[in-house]
Amino acid sequence: MLIPFATVLAIDFKPVDSLPGHDLFEGGQVCRLEIKVDAPGLASLRTNPREFIRAEIQEGASSYAHVGVRLKGSVGSFQEVDEKPDLTLDFACFGGSQKFHGLRRIHLNNSVEDPSYCHELLGSDLFRAAGVPAPRVAHAVVTLNGRRLGLFVLKEGATEDFLSCFFKQVGGNLYEPGEGHDVNQRLKRNAVAAPKQNRAALQELARAALETNAAARWETLEGTLDVREFVDFMIMEVILDHRDGYSMARNNYRVYFDIDSDRFVFLPQGMDLLFGHPNATWQPSLAGLVARAVIETAQGRQLYQERFGVLLTNVFHATALQSRVDQTVAALRPVLSAQEYADLRQQADLLKERIARRQISLQSQLTQPLRQPLAFTNGTARVGCWTKVDESPAARLDLCQIDQAPALRIVAQSDSGASWRAEAFLARGRYRFKARVKVTGVKPLSFGRHQGAALRIAGQELPDSGLTGSSAWRDIAAEFEVKDEAGEVELICELRAVGGEACFALDSLKLYQTP
After folding, report:
1. What is the pLDDT of residue 307?
2. In a 3-state reduction of DSSP, which class is residue 93?
3. Do 266 and 255 touch, CB atoms closer than 8 A?
4. Which among 433, 425, 397, 440 has a CA at the least distance from the CA of 508?
5. How far apart are the first and last CA of the chain?
6. Up-side HSE of residue 479: CA atoms within 13 Å toward CB?
7. 430 within 8 A of 513, measured Cβ to Cβ
8. H or E segment at 490?
9. Rg value, the chain, Cα
10. What is the maximum alpha-carbon separation in the chain?
11. Where are the domains of the chain?
12. 57: left (phi over 0), alpha (psi -120 to 50) or beta
């Protein structure tokens, strides 16, 4: 069974029912929120969606005035205010101490990348069951100026209210990344109760992770990072296949300096894409600087291997998770139309199947001998088993024939960042990933790190922009290095665009060993 939230809090100085938001998250009820925005505020959300405007929020008989509302989300989830936008609601944004069920800030996620509306809920449950602090999750039906936006995932914000559930003091600094920023880059400091902005400890964590001597690195990491909890954090990201999290993508995380332990703790975020690859390896290639720094030490590898089996056995129970999905869907049924419920039920059943497959795959992997690296012939190897990622109404992916040759095609119809992906287990060394690509009418996104059609390695930034516009077949490549003795690498053929299509010739998708 899932461990109840009450038993996995990192504190014992407060009764669980006295925690902020307890009534909101523990009862399984669905909130009904009415958001009222005046004409100037609505205009501001259209032109400056990331800036807070004043709004009135109504929940039953309770009314909240001067609530800060802004849009949130990135490629794949971001929608304009006249669509179904992701929203952040800050009840004390414009001064005062107003709170919603004891919480200053909540997020409303449109869940366009998770049609089951269950990923965030299950992910948070499992992280907390593993002893890792994670935000609590519920659901809400939202209207904006009388227009029904529909069902949303409601999540607590990373504020003092959230931190107080897990830490005796909430005066440490809390940081979040920019686009792909790691701890050795500029992280944004969240507005929590820390008396001052002190980045010295964060810089010390970065220095420890960059230490080249493995033995010295482990010793310095132990002095600035809660290593045991971080390993559990890594493992849960892998078990959940949280491929857009810190360990595998340097994304969707928070890092908090716990004053009592005098060490940093990593917190998960943005878990709307889970269980996408049920057969994903339990030893993936890692992108996060701290994750690599830990796993590349003998102590870190041993702890990871020991804890993985423990957490898989004690925390990840497919039957209990499937029951949690069924309970959630049943609670949502009264607020949905017949068609909405049918769609949700279908997606929930697919999620339950992926959960079962994930448990079977991981249990099987742990009984197998270590994988052997991909074999190369004359320095070349073909890459197969390509899978679709982030297919949606905004992006269509298919296998087609272009100029009498099979190709992986991506067609963008609005803002999208879809891709074809494959995994390769490679020995230490340098490699070049190559392909022939043809683009037609590709219009790049107006934001984000990667644009157009490109080849990329997960966790690695592109040195240049991808292909845009229209062109005949062209050769493109991405170079990378495997620094471990052997490691899992995720190869990506992607199109990030508002329109157009890209075709990747299937027979050209190859890896080359380089000096």
Report:
1. 96
2. coil
3. yes
4. 433
5. 51
6. 7
7. yes
8. strand 469-505
9. 23
10. 73
11. 5-162, 169-314, 380-514
12. beta
Question: What is the layout of strands, in order, in the sheet containing 174-176?
Answer: 188-189, 174-176, 253-258, 263-268
The H-assigned helical ranges of 172-254 are: 200-210, 214-224, 227-239, 246-249
Which residues, 6+ apart, have CB-to-CB distance to 390 below 8 Å? 76, 113, 416, 417, 418, 419
Give the DSSP letter of residue 271: -
Give me the pLDDT at residue 126, please. Answer: 97
Residue 197 one-letter amino acid: Q
The pLDDT of residue 311 is 97
Give me the phi and psi of 369, to 5 degrees please: -65, 160
Residues of the chain with pLDDT under 70: 1-17, 75-76, 179-180, 191-197, 449, 462-464
Helix (H) or strand (E) holding 298: helix 298-314
User: Distance (Å, rounded) from C-alpha 341 to C-alpha 330?
Assistant: 9
CA distance linking residue 249 with residue 180, whole number of Å: 7
CA distance 46 to 54: 14
Residue where the block lists tokens 């014992």: 12
SS3 341: helix
Distance CA 136, CA 120 (A): 9
Question: Which residues, 6 or more positions from 350, have their beta carbon under 8 angstroms from its beta carbon?
Answer: 116
Which fold would CATH assign to domain 380-514?
Jelly Rolls (2.60.120)
What is the C-alpha separation between 5 and 313, in angstroms, rounded?
18
**DSSP states of 404-442 as a string?**
TEEEEEEEESSSEEEEEEEEEEEEEEEEEEEEEEEEEEE
Q: How far, in Å, CA of 325 to CA of 334, rounded?
A: 16
DSSP 26: H
Q: What pLDDT sits at residue 17?
A: 65
Alpha-carbon span 90 to 50, nearest angstrom:
13
Q: Which two tokens stand for residue 420?
A: 């074809």
Measured distance CA(163)–CA(173) in Å, rounded = 11
pTM of the predicted protein model: 0.77
Strands 137-144, 30-36: pairing kind: parallel
What the block records as the tokens of 424 is 């390769």
Q: Which residue has the tokens 């491929």?
A: 243
Report which secondary-structure segment, H or E, holds 124. helix 119-129
Helix (H, G, I), strand (E, B) or coil at 496: strand
Cα separation, 289 vs 295, in Å, equals 10
- For residues 272 and 77, the answer to whether their CB atoms sit within 8 Å is yes
